[in-house]
Write a structure and sequence with these properties.
It contains nine helices and no strands. It is about 80% helix and about 0% strand.
Length: about 170
């Protein structure tokens, strides 16, 4: 069904039937429920804090012995928050938090190149995101700190980090 067909269908429905369909969607699909819960009661700070806790648990676990250090955990939260339409500065803060906690984790550890490659991807994403959303001045200092850490710790792919920074000038 195209968007145009859907509009026509919705316009032709009586108000009470439309309300019934919306309630049915809300009850049937968790994604719809999540969306409306967020729209009417955002609690953005709470959601960000919960995400930060789960991300830090990936690198510094409380209940298990070994860290998993999966970038995908943070990426799921970031993608979800962008889709919900959360404020750009909160999403950017979470993106940078993910990089900062990963850098803390990487100190004095022998990690595979794939870890550093994924951190480069995260760095590219955050720099692109803050540029597009117009919040670069707010996060420039933190971005430069992440970049400086990658340079002083001599991370693999450090030329990639330089290339990303050069792209925003």
């Amino acid at each position: 069904m195209s968007k145009r067909q859907l509009k026509k269908y919705l316009n032709d429905l009586p108000k009470n039937e439309l309300e019934e369909q919306m309630l049915d969607l809300y009850q049937r699909f968790p994604v719809v429920k999540q969306y409306y819960d967020f729209v009417f009661n955002p609690k953005e700070e709470k959601l960000i804090q919960e995400a930060k806790t789960k991300i830090s648990n990936e690198y510094f676990p409380i209940r298990r012995k070994r860290p998993k250090a999966r970038r995908s955990v943070a990426q799921k939260f970031i993608k979800h928050f962008v889709k919900l339409g959360m404020e750009a500065h909160l999403v950017a803060d979470l993106m940078l938090y993910n990089l900062e906690i990963a850098q803390t984790f990487s100190t004095n550890r022998n990690l595979p190149d794939s870890f550093f490659k994924s951190m480069l991807n995260s760095f590219e994403e955050v720099v692109h995101f803050v540029s597009v959303e117009g919040v670069l001045p707010e996060f420039q200092k933190r971005i430069l700190t992440v970049y400086g850490f990658a340079q002083t710790e001599e991370w693999p792919f450090e030329e990639g980090f330089s290339r990303v920074l050069d792209s925003i000038d």
